[in-house]
């Protein structure tokens, strides 16, 4: 794989990770809010 393709691959991967992280962080926040009685 050339360096340009590698950069593009990592950019896509990082984007997917951040997207997934935001989704799970939001779910954890909602669950944690329920547990702690901190409903938004």
From TrEMBL:
Protein name: Uncharacterized protein
Highest taxon of the lineage: Eukaryota
């Amino acid at each position: 794989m050339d360096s340009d393709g590698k950069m593009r691959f990592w950019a896509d991967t990082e984007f997917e990770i951040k997207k997934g992280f935001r989704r799970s962080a939001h779910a954890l926040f909602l669950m944690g809010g329920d547990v702690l009685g901190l409903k938004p």
